[in-house]
Amino acid sequence: MKYLVFIGIALVSITSCVQAEKETSIVDSPVSTEVKEHKELGGLNICFYNQDSLQIHFNYFREQDSIITKKQLAYQSEIQRKSQDLQNYIIKYEERAKANLLSQNEAMQMQQAAQQKEQTIMQYQQTVGARLEEETYNKMEVIGNKIEFFATQYSEENGIDLLLVHARGGQFKYIHSSMDVTADFTKYLNEHQDALTGDIEK
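and the corresponding structure tokens:
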């Protein structure tokens, strides 16, 4: 489903933070113990966070995903209801036609009614479905941009030179667990999620 693709696109970001001294930040916080203990490679401070885990434990993402999911379920339910209504109408029409209970004029009217019901379903898919798809894409893109923004802040505050995204089926098949800052980064996001409600320009 396109929604899952949007999530993947929205969250995949690689942030490189090479800054000698940070002038401003959201909060003045000490370097995380988890970050301090991660593995250093070639003199660079390299960490990663797990994308799948972030989707589950990052409260703001989970809340927004829940909103979209409810809308999608309601949309699918309405499509099914309209489709079932059309199917029942056609069955009723066919039964009356087989029993020779319809005049030529009535048969024509029922055919037109069935076509109108079918057109209504198609129009609903084109308008409501397309609008929901666009809303989903835009929401996930905004969330992705904001995660990227805070990834930069987090990296600068913790002296991380390279923050990678590790995901199933992604580019990185294996990364040593000592570089994993998923729990700490997720905690950081949850602590700052109030700032995610506003617009953050990239």
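(Above: one complete record from the training split.) The CA atoms of residues 58 and 189 lie 7 Å apart.
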